[in-house]
Amino acid sequence: MMCAVAMTFIDQTIVSIAAPDIVSELGLSASGVQWVINAYLLSLAAFFALGGRLADLWGPRRVVMAGTLVFVVSSVLCGCVPDDGYALPWLVVFRATQGLGAALLFPAALAVVVAVFPVERRGRALALFFGLTGALTALGPLLGGWLTGWTWRAVFWVNVPVAVVALVLTVLARISDRRREEPLDVTGALLIVTGMGLSVLGFQQASAWGWDSAWTWLCVAGGLAVLAVFCRYELRQRHPLVDLAVFRSRAFTVDTLVLFFAMLAFVPVFFFASVYAQVSLSASPNQAALYLLYFFAGFALASQWGGRILDKRGPRPALRLGCVVGAVGFALWAGKLTDLSLHDQWPYAALAGAGIGFILAPASTDAVNRAIDASYGEVTGITQTVRNYAASVGLAVYGTVLTHTMTDRVTETLRGSGVPPDARASVARDITEAVTGHADDRVPTGDGAPAAAMREAMPAIRMDFAEANQWVFYGMAIALGIGWFCALRHPGGRAADAVPEEGRKRPDAPTV
Prior knowledge:
Protein name: MFS transporter
Distance between the termini: 21 Å
Membrane topology: Multi-pass membrane protein
Keywords: Antibiotic resistance, Membrane, Transmembrane, Transmembrane helix
Order of helices and strands: HHHHHHHHHHHHHHHHHH
Structural class: mainly alpha
Transmembrane segments: 34-51, 63-82, 102-119, 126-148, 154-172, 184-203, 215-235, 256-276, 288-306, 318-334, 346-363, 471-490
Shape: globular
Subcellular location: Cell membrane
Strand content: under 5%
CATH architecture: Up-down Bundle
CATH superfamily: MFS general substrate transporter like domains
């Protein structure tokens, strides 16, 4: 199962490293390539609940294999994108189907792993699972940097050999398929996909439409309204897509909230840190990958420690510690971004990663331990829906903050460089859109005064980008600070001690 989910973890980070080359070759805008990344995460968030439910209804082995096939076929098609006007819709569509494959695969794979271990041993087991898969996420930037040197299309094709190995091992493992004889809630699935899609669309397009646009708020408010309808509808169903009764557990609710605020930072940091390294530090894709490894070093070590804390003392100490360490790490990291020195930043990047490591495995494991009637696929679908929805919202909101802040700062830089007033706003927007990771190699050409002034201003523009990213990283620190306040509400204790197995069963649930 770890081999099967490796592709989904690698894909969360590998495309961020290749983003500048994708923009350059296909002529995409900065907002366009952000949608290429966000489409995958949005699809994950929208379909995870469905994937978790299908794992319960059809059996985890079948769903793992179906998800792997959908994922790898979509990966191949992403790598075959045509170099023409259809490039952006092509990539967005097949990145979305990649997300669908991952949404089917991950809950089923995790349900298999959880079912193997008793409650009192799951903390250490899932810490190992998330720690090693997190290490595979770290492999994404390294692979991305190396493969981009050949062709950026290879970042998608690398999933093919991994998928072949995963399918072979899944067959050899002889995984039993436990199924539930219940109907699928199709209406609920349509409602949650629509609600999440609309709300994230509003957040994403806020940078282009503006926060004062009626379309922005129509999408955000409309999406949230659909999600509210979804919740009301689910409460009336005998066999809902998502059993909202699990939120009656305060521990589960707090686990989910902490995961939400942690994921506002976890996935977006890969995109923003890698682009910052390539733009402001003039790093190559390989160097940007190494830059992110400091974050993962802290993450991997802390995730093992957090799992042991969970097994011995319950999740509350790990969640509180992780939120504090992460908030401090991101805040200190943000303060060092304008030093433009990789050497000065690595301790704070590692500290930020450690904070996320303390949170991820304990919160995810404790939430699964609260599963109703051992419906691990369903509960995993809930937590992963929340996690990936948060990642999508984080990318959209931080992207908006970065775009607006960068445009304002570049406008001031161009004013000091003598660019005519009537050209500043449009030139500043063009520069912001054209940030592709090698700003020093793609200096403006031409003999006019604006082009000459822009060439002279490029070092200052790289500093502008670093200063704009500071607001993004401070935002991540604030998110983890809010997570800490949520962690204070956790009742504490271990799930095995607090709630007996029979206390988590639904009255009408069949015996598994």
